[in-house]
Amino acid sequence: MVRNPTTRVLVVDDHTTFAELLAGALDREPDLESVGHATTAAAGVAMFRDLRPELVLMDVQLPDATGFDATRQIMAMDPFARVIVLTAHAKPEFAGDALVAGACGFLAKDGTLAAMLAAVRTARPGHVAVDPDLMIHLIADAAAPREPAVRLSDRQLDVLALLADGEDVQHIAKELDISLSTCRSYVQSILIKLNAHSQLEAVVIAARLGLVTIGRPDRLSRDAHR
């Protein structure tokens, strides 16, 4: 009787209990086989090099490096390697990092065992499989509105808007009916909050953050350094 070939799987996770339970679940499947588990990125890469499993289940957070770093090293050794990244924290940027690193799966560690086994069986290079429940969470998180990290007062925003229009400090002071020294103080506080070295840089940073719309660039380039 000919035995069907098995998919040999390496588990890389620093939570020993989780890794052992997952390895045991793999060994109970007739078409899957655990070749062991590693608790660090370096050990995982070394075990992949020595054992050449068909698939790696890779945790994101490891003591010495991220699972993305280890995945990149594995893909450098074997471009056809199959790596599924496991995460305990569903973050949109993690899904992107997994894709860039070359992973072919991105799953939540608290998902169902059936979903994980299905991903192991269907994983293939060039395709990223994401658990449906995790995908819904990622989409909702990515679509959630976020306030700018930088907070400016209403008056600072007024000054910034006029800077974006290319107005100089003297005109802004007159426009807002404040003293020149007060206006300069507002400008200085804006530079500090935006970590900018000039008024021009402050306006560019603010525009990227969605705090302001740049108005007359020809005049801005002439006046913003005053």
Automatic annotation (TrEMBL):
InterPro entries, A to Z: CheY-like_superfamily, NreC/VraR/RcsB-like_REC, Sig_transdc_resp-reg_C-effctor, Sig_transdc_resp-reg_receiver, Tscrpt_reg_LuxR_C, WalR-like
Q: Domain HTH luxR-type spans what residues?
A: 145-210
Modified positions (4-aspartylphosphate) in chain numbering: D59
Q: Sorted alphabetically, which SUPFAM superfamilies does this protein's record hold? A: C-terminal effector domain of the bipartite response regulators, CheY-like
| Pfam families assigned to the protein according to its UniProt record, in alphabetical order | GerE, Response_reg
What keywords appear on the UniProt entry?
DNA-binding, Phosphoprotein
Identify the residues that the record assigns to the Response regulatory domain, covering every copy.
8-124
- Report the domain of life of the source organism: Bacteria
Spell out the protein name for this chain.
Response regulator transcription factor
Whose protein is this, by species? Pedococcus aerophilus
